[in-house]
């Protein structure tokens, strides 16, 4: 039966290592594992806990890898290739079962892993020194993961870059990742994101054709018991993140943007925007791009139940302008 392993995020190397140890202890072959990133680390393995030592076959008790393997993993997990964890676990398995593999640099799995590591390294070098802006969305993701220009990044699980095609014509910008976004490493996947996806579907927009991101790239929260409650980023925190947003806009190069909420509107326009008064209106940025002002979907979720249906219909009407104007952008 296939096993599903859910890691805490796209760069959760420690969760990956724990899961690998448990999978090897149970002798779960690479073809029987499905890797994904999400809210509960190592969901199918209880954070990587394996069977009791007495039940573990002697040959499965220890994993042995070349010294260069872990540094390779550290680079590869930062790649955006969805199959990176499959590749690394397959390599790990083969290193245990094929002794000659460590001496075969031409093996296809070794070659692909080293290519991915080199791509990550090259992107990191391009953006590391001298304040040079990342030149690709991959380089931006790597740089965001290391960013500590404000305190938010110290406490978040991971950075959450935008997602979508590089040259999408339309770009949606929200405030910041929420709890689920922080855990999964993807924007707009929590309750507000589900409402947003529903709106896109009703508008006839394929989510895969637009670019979706946030003005602030890490999740700011306060703990209440075990719950992490969203906190609005301070203006100086949003300001520290502005150059990342502008780099993202430059890389995607959209023809128009949709500001979802006050934080996004302020960051995109460079001044405070009264969203309730300006919603449904197009504003123009200094670079000439048009920005449609709209409510953030979380604002609808906070409304009284009796008001939600009408508010959703009005919000949909605002967003529909982005669709209607696409041909005239």
Structure description:
- With 329 residues, the chain is α/β, with parallel strands linked by helices.
- The strands form 3 sheets. A 5-stranded mixed beta sheet has the order 4-3-7-9-8, with helices on both faces. Strands 1-2 form a two-stranded parallel ribbon.
- Strand 1, helix 1 and strand 2 form a beta-alpha-beta unit.
- Helix 2 crosses helix 4 and helix 4 crosses helix 5.
- It starts with a strand and ends in a 5-residue tail after the last helix.
- About 6% of the residues have low confidence.
Outline of this structure?
The protein is an alpha/beta fold. It folds into 2 domains: 3-120, no CATH class; 160-328, Uracil-DNA Glycosylase, subunit E (3-Layer(aba) Sandwich). The chain has 13 helices and 9 strands.
